[in-house]
Specification:
By secondary structure, the protein is of the alpha/beta class. The chain is built from 3 helices and 5 strands; from the N terminus they run E-E-H-E-H-E-H-E. The protein has a single domain, classed as STAS domain (Transcription Regulator spoIIAA, 2-Layer Sandwich). It is globular.
Length: about 110
């Protein structure tokens, strides 16, 4: 993962995490703990902007699956914003596109 940014909740209950680069084993190792800290700080309504993620491997997919279950257990949810290219193909091939709330833009997040 080259970079990530977190934006606190907007007028909605959602907060947005923007990722850039690759969501792979190396990135997940460095992202997991800070992500859990951000969830504790901002709440269980997380939207991950994947528009600038060009690659995801099974470790990245596993992180997303664990996150959605963790957030739903806390009465929250996970939305994926603008997955494209290889990331979108993996979500479709694994049929995980049906597990996640997938949005074209962060503007589509509702209250």
């Amino acid at each position: 993962m080259e970079t990530w940014t977190a934006q606190p909740p907007s007028p909605t209950r959602w907060w947005v995490l923007g990722l850039r680069g690759e969501l792979d084993l190396h990135a997940v190792r460095h992202l997991r703990e800070p992500l859990l800290t951000e969830i504790e700080a901002h709440g269980p309504w997380l939207a991950i902007d994947l528009s600038e993620v060009r690659f995801i491997d099974t470790t990245g997919v596993g992180l997303l699956v664990r996150l959605v279950h963790n957030l739903r257990d806390r009465d929250g949810d996970l939305a994926l914003i603008a997955p494209a290219g290889q990331v979108l193909r993996i979500l479709r091939w694994t049929n995980l596109i049906r597990v996640f709330r997938v949005l074209d833009t962060a503007d589509a997040l509702e209250g």
